[in-house]
Amino acid sequence: MITRIGVQPVIVSVGGAVGRQTYRVSELTDDGEQMSVEVSCSNDLAVDGNFNLIHWSGEASPFRVYRATEGIFSLIAETSESRFIDTGDA
Fold first, then answer.
1. Distance CA 57, CA 89 (A)
2. Can you give the pLDDT of all 90 residues of the chain as single tens digits?
3. Rounded to whole angstroms, what are the CA distances from 37 to 1, 14, 49, 84?
4. Rounded Cα–Cα distance for residues 22 and 40 (Å)
5. Which residues are CB-neighbours of 61 under 8 A, at least 6 positions away?
6. Angle (nearest 5°) at CA 32 between 30 and 33
7. Closest Cα to residue 23, out of 64, 80, 62, 81?
8. Alpha helix segments (H runs only) across the chain
9. Under a CB-based contact definition with an 8 Å cutoff, are residues 87 and 76 in contact?
10. Which residues face 25 on adjacent strands?
11. Is the Cβ–Cβ distance between 65 and 22 less than 8 Å?
């Protein structure tokens, strides 16, 4: 079970299209996919060097990272690490 989740925006340069990104992380267990709560931040991921660091504490991997676009969550990564850097490319 994911017990903690956070997101930190890293802003190298301010752009004109700052957006709000919302994330969820899940872990795959014998009981299925267990989803975390949502976390959000604001950043312009279209600007080179800007990114969001999503981090969490969980017991099982692999973990799946989801980002919401217009309110709909889509899978952007699967990882065995307890962190993911979103540059907006996914």
1. 24
2. 788 888 999 988 887 767 889 999 999 888 888 889 899 999 999 899 999 999 999 877 789 999 998 889 999 999 999 999 999 986
3. 11, 28, 27, 16
4. 4
5. 27, 28, 79, 80, 81
6. 125
7. 64
8. none
9. no
10. 65
11. no
Look up residue 85 and give its amino acid: I
Contact 66, 24 (CB under 8 A): yes
Which sign, positive or negative, has the C-alpha torsion 84, 87, 88, 90? negative
pTM: 0.87
Residue 33 has what pLDDT? 86
Residue 46 dihedral angles phi and psi, to the nearest 5°: -80, -15
